[in-house]
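Good morning C.,

I know you're traveling, so I'll keep this short. The sequence:
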Amino acid sequence: MSINTLARVFTPHGNIVYTANDFRQTLRIVFTGMVALSVSSFYNTSYGVFYVVYPIMLLSLVPVFNRHVAKQFVFSAVINCIEMVLIIGYLAQWPLMMTLVVFALYVMRFRFMSKGPLFLFGSAGVVCQSTMLNFMSYPTSDWHTLIFSNIEASMMAVALSALMNYLIPDVTPRNPPPRIEKSDARVRHESLLSGSVATVVFVVFQLSDLSDSLSALMAGILILFPMHYRGAVMSSLWRVVGVVIACLYILLVQMVLYNHSSHMLLMMPLIGLGLAFSARLHVMEKVGAGVGFASVTTIGIMFGQNLHPDTDLVFSDLYRIVSVTVALLGTLTMVFLVHLFLNRFEATRFVIEDQ
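The tokens, ready to paste straight into the viewer:
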């Protein structure tokens, strides 16, 4: 479905549903990304990926803004920072115990996502926990800067979301997404499946020197958001296509600007164009974390973290495509094996008819 949607972007078709609300959400994502990147570049933040990706992720996955959304996003960041300090600071010398605690936190957050009402709290917590654990595990990381950057970026994401929804409001009220009734067995299956695989990803990144593979880490985590095997397979395909599209566009931008990439007045129109294409594709898909979401987050990560005058983006692009593909294949293999294991027990069996 997403691949067909991608093709129709270049060949307009009457069956495409692109409402006035979709157009306004596209504008909110584009302007938010450009403002976030400008702030990150102006202040030369150490962890620019937080400042750019968090606002884009919030505006993309949550098309509305209210107090419930703001509280979930900010509280998730604060609680995660406290948890990460305790885990890395006190349990790093006992790897087995630390891994068990990380597993328990993952399962708890995926359970929030599976239940529904606290989906944003759980999903933001999963992303934040995975990123923080990765950064804090390296001795060169400044914990103080990392923690406050994460909290500041979360608060900026909420502020930008509120501002953009005020300046560019929807034309018509949006209907809340339909509630999916899930059995207790399915909730347990989704929580344990996603929590187990996320913990394996955590262990792999702890044992290997993969400090430059943030996109691979995020790819492995984000495909778990459907929380079942078939959804993970589709999400993987969408992720690969989105990353390839974004990397090719970023490579084109680098070729056009060459060594003038430090000039923000030249960069911003091209960044806005890439964000606009990806955001438009995202709102047209209406599948959550699809091709458009993968593309727009990849642009945020690359421009927020790697686009500097002395950075070889050709290597970064190729490395990102290969590392993401390898990470997705490994993660899908683990998802399949854990899915088969959990389905052997009635208490954790995932029933296809419940979807």
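Safe travels,
E.
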